[in-house]
Here is the input.
Amino acid sequence: MDSKYAIRMNKTGMHFGQKQALADLDLDVAEGEIFGLLGHNGAGKTTAVSIITTLLRPTSGTAEVCGYDIMRQAKEVRRIIGYLPENVEFYNRLTLEENLSYFARLSGLSKPEGRIRDVLDFLDFKGHEKERLETFSKGMRQRAGIAQAIMHMPKVLFLDEPTSGLDPQGVINLRKIIISLNRELGMTIFMNTHSLSEVTKTCTNIGILREGRLLYQNSLEDTMKAFPGESSLEDIYLHIDSGYE
Amino acid sequence: MTRSGQTHAKSPIKEIALQELRIARTNRMAMLLLAIFAGMMLLSGFIGWTAHRTVTAVYEEILREGATAAPNPFSSQNPLDLMQNTVIYVILIGALLAIILGVHSGLGDRKAGVIDLIFSRPLTKSQYVMGKLLGMQLLMAMIMVFAGLVSWTVVLLVAGKALNFTETLSLAGFLVSAWLFLLPFNCLGLVFGAGARRESSALLMPILAWVFLTFVMPQLGTAEHPVALLNPVAAQPAAQGDFFQINRAALQPLSLTDRFKDLSAILLHLGDGGSSLKLDLLMLGTAGLLGCGAAIYLVKRDSLRGRLYE
Here is the structure.
C-alpha cells in the first residue's frame, strides 16, 4: 500500500480516565520528512507516538502509517516502523549482539547476523558486539537503541526524545546519524523533542503540541520566514505558545 | 547499508521461547532453584538409602539371632520406592519453582523495560504469551530430564542395580505427570507476574493459590492434618459429616495435588492409587491446558506496559 503521507492522524483523541492527553489531533507527515514534534512536558508528544506506533489504542479518531490503519492493520504498521523510546532499555545481562539479534528476529529477519554487522558499521559502533549492555554508557545505549530500531530497515522511524541525557559529542553524533538515515536510506523520521536547537539543525518540518492540541505545523523554512521578527526557533516557539494562552 | 537482503522469520513464538531460555541462563534465582530441586532429588535418594541400610541392618541382626526366617522386606520392593520422597518435593519445592519461574517470566520483560520494544514489532499479545509458555515448558522439561537422570543414577548407586526398561518407563511417566502437575503453577505465576503492579504481590498471590490447592482444598473433604496431605498415598476417605462428604465428592476429583499423588502412587508402585491412571492424567492434562488458555486470555498488553513498583 502506498501513500504520499508517511503519517496521518485524523481527529485522534486519547483519554486516560478523566484526563485528556490528545484532543482531536490532525497531523500529516509526508514521506521523506524529518518531523519534529515540540511541546512542554505532558503536552501529549509521547502519547501521540505511542498511538502511531500501535502501542496505545486511541479513544477516538484514526491514524495511518504509509496508508495502513493503526488499529485494523497494526501488524503491517509494525513491520514498517522503527521505534526508539525515551530512555531505551535492554536485557542488561545479554550482549549487544544477543539483544540486537532478538529484536531483529522479532521484526522478521531470520538471519540477522549480516545486518547487525552492517548496522553497527553504519553507526560507527563496531567492536562492542560481545559486551553486555550493563557496561554501556548512556550514549552507547542510545546507539544500541537506534541500532535495534533500524535493523529491519523501517520506512518510518520514531524517536522519542533521542538526545535526552546525551553529552554534546553524543548529540552531534546522533544528529549525523539521523540525517544519514533520512538522506541515505530514505527513512521518514518523526521525533519528539524539547531541544529546539536540535530541531533547527535536524528537522525539515515541525509541529507544536500543547495540552494535547496541535497549535502549529509547517516546514522549518517557512516557519522561519513567517516570523521575521523572531531571531530563533526558541523565540518562535514562545511566540506561538504564548498566543495560545 | 541497503534495504535489500531481508528474509522473514516465520513465527515470533519460537523467538520469544528461545529468548526465555537465554534469560533463564542469566537468572540466578532460576539457577538456584534448579540446584535446590536437583539437590532434593539427591536427598530423596539418600533418605531412601539410609532407610534401606537401617532396615537391612536390623533385619540381618534379627536374622543372626534366629528371630525371623522371613525374607528381607526390601528384597520384594520396587527400587522406585527409593524415590517416594520426591513426590513431596515436587508438591512443595517443584510447585514453588514453577511459580517463581512463571512470575519471573511475566515480570522479566517489564523489569528490563523492553515491553515497548517488543510490542512495536509485528507480533500479537497471544503470540507473546504462547512464546513465554513454550520457553518455560522447554525449561521445565530440561529440569525434569535432569531430575530423571539424577533419580536413575541415585537408584543405581543405592540399590546396586539399574532400573529395567519398565521401571525406567515408570520413572519417565512420573516425571511427565510432575511436569503436568507443575504446568498450571507456571501459568499462574506468569499471569500474576505479567499483571501485578508490585513484584511482592506478583509472588504472593500465586503462592496463596498454591496453598489453597495443596492444603485447603483436600482438607475441606478429609479434615486431614496438612502434613499428611503431602504423602504419596491414595486420597483419603471423607471425614464424618455431610459438610466433608459433600466437599470431598465435589472437590476431590478436581484437586490437582490428589490427582498427582494418585498418579505418583501408581507409577512409583507406592500402593494403589485411589482412581485410575488415565483419569488422573486426563485431569492433570486438562488443568494444564486450562492454565495455558487462561494465561493467554488473562495477560493483557496494557498490564504488561503498566508501571511496576518495587
In short: Chain B has one domain: 12-305.
